[in-house]
Amino acid sequence: MTTPAERFSALTSKEQERLRLLNEKLWAAEEWIRQRHARSLEWYYGAGGLRRHGDALFENVETEVAVQCILREDHPGWKKDDDNIVATLLLPSACLDEGNPRRNWNEYQHWDGHPLQGEYHCWLFHDLCDHVLGYDWGALLGIGKIWTDVMLIQQRIESW
Questions:
Q1: In Å, how far are 2, 21, 131, 144 from 10, measured between CA atoms?
Q2: Would you give the end-to-end CA distance of the chain in angstroms?
Q3: CA distances for 123 relative to 9, 16, 72, 127, 147, angstroms
Q4: The pTM is what?
Q5: For 114-153, what is each residue's pLDDT tens digit?
Q6: Domain ranges for the chain
Q7: For the chain (length 160 residues), average pLDDT per consecutive 10?
Q8: Could you write out the three-class secondary structure of the chain?
Q9: Which of 81, 94, 101, 80 is nearest to 30 (CA)?
Q10: How far, in Å, CA of 125 to CA of 142, rounded?
């Protein structure tokens, strides 16, 4: 059985570049998500949203993010009347408020001689490769669209 590194090395330069483009698109999505998250919180607190109001009333807000990776329309598995979702990713709230949004999540960045060592991986690309698709480069190469949902969840708890 071959390793992800061996399979990556076997990809053509065009395929490797396509994976880099996917990473860039996911990084751009992360940036857009962080902007929407910050703006949503500004709107919420500007409209009078509270974090805590006494012992009996508690209000809070959180942002939930879902990123769907969708097949390219020229992919052989693409179906006209289907959602064509390859994977759904969730961006952890820690990534929304992270002090270093350009952090490199590449697990191989410190492995001398590893073919992925010099690659920058945003969180979503790392999650997609490492956790969701298990370095299935074929599945990753099939992605041609990203659908992003950012939802502000307003919560209120009252007790007596």
A1: 10, 18, 22, 21
A2: 61
A3: 22, 18, 22, 6, 16
A4: 0.85
A5: 777 788 899 999 999 999 999 899 999 999 999 999 999 9
A6: 4-158
A7: 77 90 94 91 83 73 93 94 95 75 81 80 93 93 96 87
A8: CCCHHHHHHHCCHHHHHHHHHHHHHHHHHHHHHHHHHHHHHHHHHHCCCCCEECCCEEEEEEEEEEEEEEECCCCCCCCCCCCCEEEEEECCHHHHCCCCCCCCCCCCCCCCCCCCCCCCCCHHHHHHHHHHCCCCHHHHHCEEEEEEEEEEEEEEEECC
A9: 101
A10: 14
* Tokens (6 digits) for 25: 């698109």
Residue in the block written with tokens 């992800």 = 4
Q: What's the one-letter identity of residue 133?
A: L
